[in-house]
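Re: [ENG-882] Designed sequences occasionally contain unexpected residues at chain ends

Forwarding the minimal case from QA. Structure tokens:
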């Protein structure tokens, strides 16, 4: 994902208003390797800016998606996740805690028929992450994991 400054410039260039709330959202996403829900982004941002609304977070995330700066993904965890990794990749999804990790893999070669043009492919691998496999109890280890910068 681009830096806060780059996203600020892209927002301005696209005619969108740049606000302190949006810049806080950009900071929350910057360098993040998790695939947060809008609610998790809201948790992080509201700690810095308590008056921000969940609606503002959703709108900004959807604006970023419309601008091609992130993807919304549904990997069957019950909530839409937002993925700042724009490079082609696949996902590993823990069936116990819901953690999502990126995995680099070549997309499968498909022979499309009937004039269908394949423009993207994504595979979702399901299983148990290392923390859930080694945890003594079956309680979720990462559920509600918030975006981290780093």
């Amino acid at each position: 994902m681009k830096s806060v400054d780059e996203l600020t410039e892209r927002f301005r260039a696209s005619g969108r208003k740049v606000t302190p709330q949006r810049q806080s959202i950009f900071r929350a996403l910057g360098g993040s390797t998790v695939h947060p829900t809008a609610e998790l982004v809201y948790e992080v941002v509201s700690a810095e800016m308590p008056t921000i609304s969940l609606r503002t977070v959703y709108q900004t995330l959807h604006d970023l998606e419309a601008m091609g700066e992130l993807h919304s993904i549904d990997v069957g965890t019950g909530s839409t996740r937002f993925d700042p990794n724009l490079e082609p990749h696949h996902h590993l999804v823990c069936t116990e805690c819901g953690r999502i990790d990126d995995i680099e893999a070549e997309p499968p070669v498909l022979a499309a028929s009937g004039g269908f043009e394949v423009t993207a492919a994504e595979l979702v691998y399901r299983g148990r992450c290392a923390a859930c496999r080694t945890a003594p109890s079956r309680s979720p280890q990462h559920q509600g994991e918030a975006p981290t910068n780093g």
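QA comment: On inspection the terminal residues look reasonable. The chain has five helices and five strands. Proposing we downgrade this to a documentation issue.
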